[in-house]
Design a protein that fits this description.
Layout lengths: L2 H5 L1 H13 L4 H11 L5 H12 L23 H10 L9 H15 L4 H14 L8 H22 L4 E5 L5 E5 L1 E4 L15 E3 L5 E3 L3 E4 L25 E5 L10 H9 L5 E4 L5 E5 L2 E5 L16 E5 L3 E4 L5 H8 L19 H11 L8 H9 L10 H4 L31 E7 L8 E2 L9 E5 L15 E5 L7 E2 L3 E2 L2
Parallel strand pairs: 3-6, 11-14, 13-17
Antiparallel strand pairs: 1-2, 4-5, 7-8, 8-9, 9-12, 10-11, 12-18, 13-15, 15-16
Helix pairs in contact: 3-4, 4-8, 5-6, 6-8, 7-8
């Protein structure tokens, strides 16, 4: 890194945010500072790191995936937290880029559902307050306040809905149910709610009498017909994986039809492979049009003609690209040009090296076929991308000439991250041109010279980051723009 870069305050700020976004551990950050030998930036760098690392990992791997990784607006907290951060005076004096990061951090905090995790983060921040530089104190205090607000909200939610609780002298809690009755009377005659009656016994224990609330509708209610979904099923066990969530989380799989089809398989939706600890999501069987999307003017001849493909069996696919930490765990070796953190995608791996990884991991892990990859990437869309490219992919416009930690860009409708951009991904198939013929469970030709790559890379323009974009390389070719994710049959 050149001294000119480090001496520019604007570029330094960009670099600081990049490091925070990449989830570098504190020790990694200190190592980078040592190499840069710019001691004058130490206090500012650590202050920002303390403020951000206190909130970046709020959810654990075994908790349900929440809407921070979804393109959809999270229920309850998203609207309130967004409006709360627009005009917050505590951070008004901070630079615009820092304010934007503060608001993003606030959203992460307000979407957390783990009281224990939030309390631990608050405790950690209290212990580190002395390290915060004066110029970053507003950011630190702002994040701390958001954590305290979220803790208070979760405490309220922890109480049973529709119940009032009191404590007697022995600290026992008595809960009386609240009955809500709807009385269809005329709009002009609203009914008054009876007052709750509290009584105190000789033992000083307090009992709250049931409260009846009468409500009067002003007009007949119109009930919208909800999509039919299969009822939650008992947890299914898999020998090769631990089940994290049996049924698809509607905050992640927002399409009701996809949720229904996933549940119809009877298989768990979200699992973790036992051999390598790789999180995988279930993809239901289905039919789609593979190749150039309708109206896609950037589609190349390689993507034509578009043709119908039917996948008759469900399969599991890695929620993210294989990370450098997962690669090292399985192979015992390091790989990757961008050695920034264990959560960055592994790259600079040949097809043959990937095969070696799969053999060592065992447990039935394979590469997805090209058809499986595009089907999972589309997640039901017929468009060229599954969302706004700036939000779902790291590419030439926003990557800052590097890969990024996995699962930072928004997921598609099935919950998969970084299907476009970041690194291009090896597929199982030998490359061959498309034909117009309909296909069922295609896996490519039996032999060839090049293997297929899908998804686009961090240095590609938008045209290279589309759901139907494809390329091919020799099996011994490697690039710091090529990685992979794994698949498995149930």
């Amino acid at each position: 890194m050149s001294s000119a870069f480090c001496k520019s305050s604007n570029q330094w700020l960009i670099f600081v945010h990049l490091v925070v976004d990449l989830h570098l551990r504190k020790s990694d950050m200190q190592c980078i500072l040592h190499r840069m030998r710019y001691a004058q930036f130490l206090r500012l760098f650590l202050a920002i790191a303390v403020a951000h690392t206190a909130t970046l990992s709020l959810t654990s791997a075994n908790e349900p995936i929440h809407a921070t990784a979804s393109a959809q607006t999270p229920p309850e907290t998203s609207t309130k937290s967004a409006s709360a951060t627009d005009e917050d005076p505590e951070i008004a004096a901070l630079p615009e880029a820092t304010r934007a990061r503060a608001k993003q951090t606030a959203l992460i905090v307000m979407q957390s559902t783990s009281l224990a995790e939030l309390r631990q983060r608050l405790k950690s921040m209290d212990a580190q307050v002395a390290q915060v530089a004066p110029e970053m104190k507003p950011l630190f205090d702002y994040v701390k306040k958001k954590i305290q607000i979220r803790i208070a909200q979760l405490k309220v939610k922890a109480a049973p809905v529709g119940a009032i609780s009191t404590k007697d002298s022995s600290n026992a809690v008595k809960i009386a149910p609240t009955t809500i009755a709807t009385t269809p009377t005329a709009p002009a005659a609203p009914a008054a709610a009876p007052t709750a009656i509290a009584t105190t016994s000789s033992s000083k224990s307090v009992t709250i009498a049931p409260t009846t609330i009468a409500t009067t509708p002003t007009a007949p209610a119109t009930v919208a017909e909800a999509p039919t979904e299969i009822a939650a099923t008992p947890i299914t066990t898999l020998e090769w994986a631990d089940v994290l969530e049996q049924n698809p989380n509607p905050k992640v799989v927002t399409n009701a039809d996809l949720r229904t089809r996933i549940q119809a398989t009877g298989l768990p939706w979200r699992v973790k492979d036992k051999s390598a600890g790789i999180e995988m999501l279930l993809v239901p069987p289905g039919k789609f049009i593979m190749g150039a999307s309708p109206g896609d003017t950037e589609a190349t001849d390689d993507e034509k003609p578009a043709h119908e493909v039917t996948l008759t069996k469900p399969f599991y696919l890695g929620r993210t690209e294989i990370t450098q930490a997962q690669w090292s765990k399985v192979t015992g070796e390091e790989a990757g040009h961008f050695k920034l953190s264990g959560e960055h995608p592994v790259e600079s791996v040949t097809f043959e090296k990937v095969n070696n990884f799969l053999k060592k991991a065992g447990n039935g892990l394979v590469l997805p076929t090209e058809a499986q990859w595009e089907y999972a990437c589309r997640a039901g869309t017929k468009a060229a991308t599954y969302g706004d490219l700036d939000s779902i992919a790291w590419y030439s416009k926003n990557s800052q000439s590097t890969t990024h930690a996995v699962a930072q860009a928004l997921a598609n409708e099935l919950g998969f991250h970084d299907m476009l951009g970041n690194v291009s991904e090896w597929c199982l198939d030998w490359y061959e041109p498309y034909t117009a013929a309909n296909q069922i469970d295609p896996s490519g030709p039996v032999n060839g010279t090049n293997r297929v790559l899908c998804g686009g890379r961090w240095f590609n323009y938008s045209g290279g980051c589309r759901v139907s974009s494809r390329s091919s390389c020799d099996t011994n070719y490697r690039s710091y723009g090529i990685g992979f994710r794994v698949a498995r049959t149930p």
